[in-house]
Amino acid sequence: MGDLAKIFKAYDVRGVVPDEFDEAAAEAVGAAFVEVTGAGAAVVAHDMRESSGPLAAAFIRGARSRGADIVHAGLGSTDLLYYASGSLGLPGVMFTASHNPARYNGMKMCRAGAVPIGGDSGLTEIRDRAAELVGVTAPPVGDLVERDLLQGYADHLRSLVDLSAVRPLKVVVDAGNGMAGHTVPAVFDGLPIELVPLYFELDGSFPNHEANPIEPANLVDLQRAVVETGADLGLAFDGDADRCWVIDERGASVSPSTVTALVAARELAKHPGSTIIHNLITSLGVPEIVREHGGEPVRTRVGHSFIKAEMARTGAVFGGEHSAHYYFRDFWFADSGMLAAMHVLAALGEQDGPLSQVVAAYSRYHASGEINSTVDDQDKALRQVREAFESRGRFDELDGLTVTGSGWWFNLRASNTEPLLRLNAEAADQTTMTAIRDEVLAIVRKVSV
């Protein structure tokens, strides 16, 4: 087993199995989780990776050794785990490495009601206590109950977005051999949806493509299938099915900012005057559309812990991120790609036009998408970009460096876990966006060589 400090990240646990993360570590984390949180009971679920079941079983041994009763939900998506935590009123742990390659695994932890546990809310203490408990074993004291929560999860989502009366829709879903292959059939069952499944076989080796829809190469099969089958839209999920990417009937990608604006408008129709959270990478169109629909937009840093904390603080009804994470007050302020997808299906199915026409009203700007550059001296690169733009726009440093000019903006920020600088740029027209994007990249990549 490797160094626990290496696999405990800002929001979760993630590492290579077994070199960095093994069953001994998982068992120690289980014991530490109970000690630090004081949990008398917890719910545990896991994804389809080969190592997920054994790691979850080891965590359960550790947790039960400290007296906690465990509800084992078995196979599930991350948002199913949030549903379990919220509906049962229990702390929860999900074993997944999300979109990471097959050799990785990890854990996402929350308190009762799906309240996230991050570095500043207990994760550091769990890490430190687990390091002391590695190799320390004890017999189980707490009870273990196996419980299938899939139907309850599906019923709950359908209670939040009613799709029973939409017009018939043909939907291609690319599960990427991840957990959407398990959850989508249950959610769509009985609805007026003709499902065209792609890669629904649960396979943690990801034999077809990475389960990471933010990478355009992983959307190619879905885009082709939508066009070839004449489908109304396509949906792509990541490995643990908490993120969802949307493809329109032409095979074109619908940006998460556009989805955020669409869902925000729908939520504001139900909850007039509510707050909507968006991170600083989402389109300028999002706060504009929120205000036009009578809502109050609030801008945050990137990262689910910041989004969830701000949603809880403001009572926001909805929050969206550029990475296709979508958060709902009615879902314990937790994120659910499936719930966002259902809003898109409802918006499409409640009228007769194609999805491209529906989303056009929510897409106003030209965006670069997130572009990563490997840069060892990130401070130097940021400094040189700042110098190049210091007389051309407004600066803020809520998260990295954001520069806003006339009809354009860009954000350049460092990765929390890798030697990367991440660039997002947007402008009112394609020419301006391309020029800003290329100028910033030229500076950054000159530093990196």
Polypeptide structure, described:
This protein is an alpha/beta fold. The chain folds into four domains: 145 residues, Alpha-D-Glucose-1,6-Bisphosphate, subunit A, domain 3 (Alpha-D-Glucose-1,6-Bisphosphate, Chain A, domain 3, 3-Layer(aba) Sandwich); 85 residues, Alpha-D-Glucose-1,6-Bisphosphate, Chain A, domain 3; 105 residues, Alpha-D-Glucose-1,6-Bisphosphate, subunit A, domain 3 (Alpha-D-Glucose-1,6-Bisphosphate, Chain A, domain 3), CATH 3.40.120; 83 residues, TATA-Binding Protein (2-Layer Sandwich). 39% of the residues lie in helices and 23% in strands. The protein contains 15 helices and 23 strands. The strands form four sheets. Strands 1, 2, 3, 4, 5, 6 and 7 form a seven-stranded mixed β-sheet that branches. α9 runs parallel beside α10, α9 packs across α12 and α14 packs across α15. The protein starts with a helix and ends with a helix. The model has no long low-confidence stretch (mean pLDDT 96).
Round the mean pLDDT to the nearest integer and report it.
96
Helix content: 25-40%
Which CATH class of the largest domain is shown? Alpha Beta
Decide which structural class fits the backbone. Answer: alpha/beta
Number of strands: 23
CATH superfamily caption of the largest domain: Alpha-D-Glucose-1,6-Bisphosphate, subunit A, domain 3
How far the N terminus sits from the C terminus, by CA atoms, comes to 35 Å
CATH architecture of the largest domain: 3-Layer(aba) Sandwich
Number of domains: 4
Segments where pLDDT lies below 50 for 5+ residues?
Answer: none
Continuous helix count: 15
Radius of gyration: 22 Å
Domain Alpha-D-phosphohexomutase alpha/beta/alpha: 6-130, 152-251, 261-365
Domain Alpha-D-phosphohexomutase C-terminal: 370-441
Keywords: Isomerase, Magnesium, Metal-binding, Phosphoprotein
Protein name: Phosphomannomutase/phosphoglucomutase
